[in-house]
């Protein structure tokens, strides 16, 4: 009887612990295997979601310029930034090929700008976005991403050498109609989750690129092959500045991307950058 009672107590303890862990980690656990996720989304049909244009900053001013100053002095190695989030750590490497964006991001990190910031816009199999300063002290359900961001950076688009592969860090910006130079927001960034594409989908993406860029952006064979095997968001290529990539914590990025969101794509459960730090 005593053995049975001990076994029962042990079972209930396991259930309680599992429940407690699932309250915080349930979504993360189902997204730890990035390859499995990409296999799942690869079977999705091409639909209207992928036909719509993507404007990641809805109402940013584009008349002010951040000229900046050189922060990172060693172009032989990449600067690393770690985002300590409520879901886990995400480590980023910044590209030396985009020095304006690199140094601006390092400056903001060192100034503590991103400490307390939310990932305020999350779209499954596409990207997660952060950088709105209003998100530090925001009410549940409040729309974000439309702050008057009076600072912009000159575009540093390095396509096709640097493209929108899964896991890259890129700068949000205002739409072409008001921002034909495709200048970046100083503050808002996104990390690409993406999906894999088949040949037909890439052909449709190329048609869309031809229309949006007047035929100036063509996906080369090696880039197309990468999108088939690994994934990304090819319809953004040549139009937004990509300035870094995730080197650790892509499972965390995918976990965040799979959170339930409201109609404005804000997660119902806040995902916050507790602190951002420069590692080297």
Structural class: alpha+beta
The chain-level mean pLDDT equals: 81
Q: How would you sum up the major sheet?
A: 9 strands, antiparallel
User: Radius of gyration, Cα only, in angstroms?
Assistant: 20 Å
Describe the structure.
This protein has 280 residues and is α+β, with helices and mostly antiparallel strands. Helix content is 29%, strand content 19%. It is built from six helices and nine strands. The chain has helices spanning 2-29, 34-42, 99-110, 199-213, 221-229, 250-257, and strands at 80-85, 88-94, 119-123, 127-130, 152-153, 168-173, 184-192, 242-248, 273-278. Strands 1, 2, 3, 4, 5, 6, 7, 8 and 9 form a nine-stranded antiparallel beta sheet that branches. A hairpin with a 2-residue loop joins strand 1 and strand 2. The protein starts with a helix and ends with a strand. Mean pLDDT is 81; it is low at 1-53 and 59-63.
Structural key phrases:
280 residues; alpha+beta; 9-stranded antiparallel sheet; 29% helix; globular; disordered N terminus
Question: What can be said about this structure in brief?
Answer:
This protein is an alpha+beta fold. It has helices spanning 2-29, 34-42, 99-110, 199-213, 221-229, 250-257; strands at residues 80-85, 88-94, 119-123, 127-130, 152-153, 168-173, 184-192, 242-248, 273-278. Helix content is 29%, strand content 19%.
Can you lay out the helices and strands and say which pair or pack?
Blueprint: H1 2-29, H2 34-42, E1 80-85, E2 88-94, H3 99-110, E3 119-123, E4 127-130, E5 152-153, E6 168-173, E7 184-192, H4 199-213, H5 221-229, E8 242-248, H6 250-257, E9 273-278
Antiparallel strand pairs: 1-2, 1-9, 2-8, 3-4, 4-7, 5-7, 6-7, 6-8
């Amino acid at each position: 009887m005593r053995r049975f009672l001990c076994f029962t107590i042990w079972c209930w303890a396991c259930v309680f612990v599992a429940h407690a862990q699932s309250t915080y980690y349930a979504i993360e656990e189902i997204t730890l295997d990035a390859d499995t996720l990409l296999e799942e989304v690869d079977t999705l049909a091409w639909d209207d979601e992928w036909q719509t244009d993507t404007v990641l900053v809805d109402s940013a001013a584009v008349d002010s310029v951040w000229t900046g100053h050189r922060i990172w002095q060693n172009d032989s190695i990449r600067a690393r930034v770690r985002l300590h989030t409520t879901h886990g750590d995400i480590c980023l490497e910044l590209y030396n090929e985009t020095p304006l964006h690199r140094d601006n991001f390092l400056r903001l990190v060192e100034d503590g700008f991103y400490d307390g910031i939310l990932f305020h816009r999350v779209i499954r199999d596409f990207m997660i976005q952060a950088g709105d300063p209003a998100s530090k002290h925001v009410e549940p359900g409040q729309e974000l991403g439309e702050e008057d961001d009076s600072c912009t950076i000159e575009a540093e688009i390095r396509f096709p050498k640097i493209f929108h592969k899964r896991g890259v860090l890129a700068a949000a910006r205002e739409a072409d109609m008001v921002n034909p130079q495709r200048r970046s927001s100083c503050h808002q960034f996104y990390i690409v989750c993406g999906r894999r594409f088949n040949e037909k989908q890439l052909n449709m993406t190329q048609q869309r690129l031809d229309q949006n860029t007047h035929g100036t952006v063509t996906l080369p064979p090696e880039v197309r092959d990468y999108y088939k095997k690994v994934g990304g968001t090819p319809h953004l290529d040549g139009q937004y500045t990509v300035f870094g990539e995730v080197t650790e914590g892509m499972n965390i990025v995918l976990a965040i991307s799979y959170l339930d969101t409201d109609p404005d794509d804000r997660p119902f459960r806040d995902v916050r950058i507790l602190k951002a730090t420069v590692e080297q």
